[in-house]
Design a protein that fits this description.
By secondary structure, the protein is an alpha/beta fold. The chain has helices spanning 32-51, 91-101, 146-163, 175-181, 187-194, 203-206, 215-225, 231-244, 306-311, 332-340, 347-351, 374-379, 390-396, 423-429, 439-448, 463-467, 482-486, 506-511, 513-527; strands at 55-56, 62-64, 74-77, 83-86, 108-117, 129-138, 169-174, 212-214, 252-254, 267-272, 281-285, 299-305, 323-328, 356-358, 364-369, 385-389, 401-417, 432-436, 453-457, 473-478, 490-504. It is built from 19 helices and 21 strands. Helix 1 packs antiparallel against helix 3, helix 7 packs antiparallel against helix 8 (231-244) and helix 10 (332-340) packs across helix 19. The protein binds 1-O-pyrophosphono-5-O-phosphono-alpha-D-ribofuranose.
Amino acid sequence: MGALADDTADDTSYPPPMMRLFPADGTVDRLPDEARALRLIEGTLVGVLHEHGYAEVVVPLLERDGVWAADDAVRLVDRSGALLGLRPDFTGSVARLVATRWPADEAACVSYRGTVFREVDNHRGERRQRQQVGFERIGSRGAAGDAHDDVHVLRTARRALHAIGVDATLTLGSAAVVEALCPQAAPDVRAALDARDGTALPPSLCALLTLHGPAKATLARATATLPPSTHAALAGLQAIVAGLGDEAHGVVVDLAEVRPWSWYSGAVFSFTVDGVARAVCAGGRYDGVVGRFGADRPAVGATIDVDALLERPTIGAAGPGPLRVALPKGRLQRDVLRALGAQAPSPEALSSRALVLPGGDGTLSFLLVKDPDIAAYVERGVADVGVVGLDVLRERGGDVLEPLDLPFGRCRLCLCGRPDLAVASILSRRTLRVATKYPKLTRQALAARGLPAEVIPMQGSVELAVVSGLADAIVDLVETGATLRENGLVAHDELFVSTARVVVNRAAFRRRAAAVDAFLSALATAATPA
Ligand code: PRP
């Protein structure tokens, strides 16, 4: 008799239903329909790459640590104690393969397809498994110099995307311009530039935030305004635009366009489509990387994000309709509505329980969103723009652009407690207990101050945690100070100053540039004191 039919079998010998194993966080199974769509896209892309001279190679999923550009590999230790990782990108593996196995005098034009894995912020529901198709051109230098190969890669990428019915906006930037203005920029500076956060940039890079728009005009403006140290890099971009010929129509140059990793050395680029926040294809020149594994060779390549292409039909594409605004439900709402004037929803609409509201003059539509959720709506392209407190944005994270800091909504994130809170005395006996709605920022700030603390996450009314004795202290927002006063508490230390920030979906910034600019101007103008 089979064990399943045996009433006497020990129940614990079978996993109860809730123990059924689903894929690990951030990874996915592909059911037949999705698997078929994925293989169709992959096959079409690889076919076009093959026609353009890129022969397919297969590299290992598991590599020694340190092969890749990204530092967010999923790492593991093998039985010998060697540190390995699942590839977070293909480029490092392909560079290693070419440096070690390819004849030195022969250009390698290769393509690849497969899965990459990256460590991600799990609470944002990001995938750590993604499917890519890509191609690299290594060791080739045409008579016209780098531009010839860069143009070949860009044309090939565009044709591959066309073959699967995707008409994307090409944006060109230059890692060499950034390097000329700010040599060896630190990762946080690159991240600030990538997010268009002017408040966190050195003055030398701020000018780059305004240099975006149609390719030829933007390059002319850049050459006229940026220092001579950038001119060789700008000439490199001009040569690429010239090399694209008629295909340069509609190309955007954006000198704040950077890839997050430092190993790009020249032109960088991305292709964006409506309704998908991440670029569907991105890449650039990375001379100097192949040399890490053997003889140095010039290199340029592009990666197509197949998952981003699969997501495309499922998300409402940004059409010619109103710009979609994620409007905070919290305290910032009043200031945002005042700044938007006639574009804001009517008072009647706002007093209803509806969560999707038309704007007053038809240029905007509004999604009423809880503040901590704003970045998720904008990141995923359901809203084009939003306004969110910097405190919430830094606590929750979000892959969004942050092009405008607003002067309203200013408040301080403080360590607060009773007036006689004696942190040193508590720490001499035990760990400090701190309650907060901002566990991530609190852990960072207290660690930076060398204060060991047990952080207790809360949803609200945090002052009660100290008043009732649940915690020794709280980390919370102080705006007027009334809540602290009325509960007999004081602020002991200021950890973070927050303002309101306009966030923009990456694709909308490219594909709805005029409407996004108008929204930013309206808020910037309204927020500027007369
Ligand atoms: C915030 C914050 C403080 C209070 C500070 O709470 O968490 O409690 O405002 O403002 P004040 O300095 O002007 O008094 P919120 O009103 O958002 O409610 P919650 O604590 O329930 O989240």
